[in-house]
Amino acid sequence: MKALVKYAFEDGAVDVRDITEPRPGHGEVLIATRAVGVCGSDVHAWRNKQSWEMDLPVALGHESAGVIHSLGEGVTGWAAGDRVVCETAAHICAECAYCRSGRYNLCPFRLGYGAKRDGAFSGYLVAEPRVLHRIPDSVTFEQAAMTEPYCVAFNALVERATVKAGDVVVVQGAGAIGSLAVQVAKLQGASSIVVVGTAADKGRLAKALTFGADHAVELGTDDPIALLKTLGDGIGADVVVDATGVSAALNQSMEFVRPLGSIAKVGWGPQALGYSLDPLVAKAATIYGSFSHTWETWERILSLFASGRLNPDTVLDGVYSLEEWEAGFEAMENGTNIKSVVTFPAPDQKMAVR
C-alpha cells in the first residue's frame, strides 16, 4: 500500500512509497484512516529539523480519524465500522509509575506514531483499544482529525499552566498550536489574549483576531511590551504560551510574564539557549513543560467539538489527497494554512473481523 514515508535523515527525504499493509495482532484493531492532520512536526521531519528520535523508515502522521476496519483476537467493546480517533502513544509499558498513575504520555518507553511506529499517512493504522475514542455523530472525519492538536493546547492551558477567568494571556506563535491556544484561552475566560508572530505570520495573525485574540502583534513592527503595559494592571501576562518551536522565544517569554506568572513551553526548539534564565528566578515565575495528553483530555475535546464550544473548522484551511501531500505541507510551512488535512477514500474491502 502507499504511505508517506520519511526514509532518511536529510532535508526533503519524505516521499510516497509502498509499504506492507499492517494486520492487527491479538488485542489490536486495524483502523482505516479517513482524515489525517498535518502537524508542524511532520513538516519539521520533512525538512529534517525534528527534535526527537525517529526510527527510519517510518510512515508519518499522528493526527488521525477513521473507522475500525478489522479486529484482532481478544478485542471486545468495539466493532468494525466504528468511527474513531486514535491517540498518539502507539505503545506504552503499562507498568511504570507514570502509566500506573494515568500519565502514560510521559512513559519512558512510549513509542509514538510517525516517529517510532508507522503512522496514519498510510491509510491504515494498527492500534490498541486503550487509545481509541468514538467520534461524535455531529463531527466529521476532517474535524475529528484535529482532536490531537486541540488536546495539546488544552493540556498546556488547562492541565498545566491553568488559565483562569480574567487572566492576561500571551500566545507566542500563530501556527496551529498557537492558534488553538488562543481558542482554549478564550474558552477559559481570559480577559485579554495577545497573539505574537512574525511578518511571515501576517495572515494567520489577522485570522487569530476572528476566533478569539484581542490583539495581534507583529514582531519588528509592533511593541508587545508596550501593549502589555496597557492590559490588566500593566505588570505583565499571567500566562505565556510558547508555541513557536524556536528556543530564542523563551527569552521573550520571560520578558512578557508577570512575577509569579506561568510560562507553558509547548514548542520544541533544538537550538541552544544562549541567554540567562535569571529573569525567571527574579520573577519567581513557573515554566511548565507541556507534552502530549491523556485519555481524559481527548474525551473533553471531542465533547467540546460536539457541543460547538470549539470549532475546528476555524483553522482547517486545506484538504488534500495523499498524492497532494507536498502542497499541504508547503501551505503550512509558508503560513498560508493554519492546518492542512490529508484525506483517504473509504476502503474498498468488506469490513471484517479477523
Protein architecture, described:
- There is one protein chain.
- With 354 residues, this protein is an alpha/beta fold.
- It has two domains: 2-146 and 315-343, Medium-chain alcohol dehydrogenases, catalytic domain (Quinone Oxidoreductase, Chain A, domain 1); 150-289, NAD(P)-binding Rossmann-like Domain (Rossmann fold, 3-Layer(aba) Sandwich).
- Helices cover 25% and strands 25% of the residues.
- It has eleven helices and 18 strands.
- It has helices spanning 40-46, 97-100, 141-144, 147-160, 176-187, 202-208, 224-228, 249-256, 278-282, 295-307, 325-333, and strands spanning 2-6, 14-18, 29-37, 58-59, 63-71, 83-86, 89-91, 111-112, 124-127, 132-134, 168-172, 192-197, 215-218, 237-242, 257-265, 286-289, 316-320, 339-343.
- The strands form four sheets. Strands 3, 5, 6, 9, 10, 17 and 18 form a seven-stranded mixed β-sheet that branches. The chain has a six-stranded parallel β-sheet with strand order 13-12-11-14-15-16, sandwiched between helices. It has a three-stranded antiparallel β-sheet with strand order 2-1-4, with no helix packed on it.
- Strand 11 (168-172), helix 5 (176-187) and strand 12 form a beta-alpha-beta unit.
- Helix 4 crosses helix 5 (176-187).
- The longest helix has 14 residues, at 147-160.
- It starts with a strand and ends in an 11-residue tail after the last strand.
- The model is unreliable at 349-354 (pLDDT under 50).
